[in-house]
Design a protein that fits this description.
This protein has about 250 residues and is an alpha/beta fold. The protein has one domain: Rossmann fold. It contains six helices and eight strands, in the order E-E-E-H-E-H-E-H-E-E-H-E-H-H. Strands 1-2-4-3-5-6-7-8 form an eight-stranded mixed sheet, sandwiched between helices.
Amino acid sequence: MKIERISLPNGDDITLTAYMLDSSDEMPNMKLRPGVLVLPGGGYYGCSDREAEPIAMAFLAEGYNAFVLRYSVGKGKAAFPRPLEDAEAALDLIRSRAEEWSLQKDKIAAIGFSAGGHLAAALATMGRVRPNAVILGYPCILESIGKILAEPVPGVDEYVDAKTPPAFIFSSSEDSAVPIENSLVFASALNKAGVPFEMHIFEKGYHGFSLANRVVCSTKETREYNRFTRPWFSMCAAWLDKLFWGED
């Protein structure tokens, strides 16, 4: 595996870390791989480590090359559209280096969590360039959710159109930080625009459950409570495989 970290135009602290699997003649169908751009959450105050490299590693295990974006965060820096500009620059870079990185540039998904979910949804609906699929974990969607974030945000449900890529959405119905109304409104907008999507709302699970395993959960109690949300990843991987590879 090769790892490369690149600074993006908005500052040295805005970085894209690329994780690229090696090719092998024993796996000829993996000469060119699809990719996943990971956008961690953190309320636009920071980028959560729990939703960064662990997510990249999970997708690597499924045969995807993965990219983690540390985008503009904090008061002032996170003012929209600066984070969106970071995501657009990351996607531009990934596609421009597709041959070098053994990527299928028309099979790049973006996955975001919480505020990173807002950014992923913005990239998919408002972006100058857009991913080929978008995955949203307990996403911030509505303009009103901006009151708990570092800076006000646009309601990205208002920008869903026919060019929005297929979406996979997951969240918890008891999420007290980002109510599931955010996910439901976005799903409704996708439905009205005729955009394919799959959505899973789990009954239990704290906000920010990520992979809900011992890697990301700091206590046994948290891990046990969040365990019901763990299936999201296998369901998401199956959905993405079907979309990008045509596999059931």
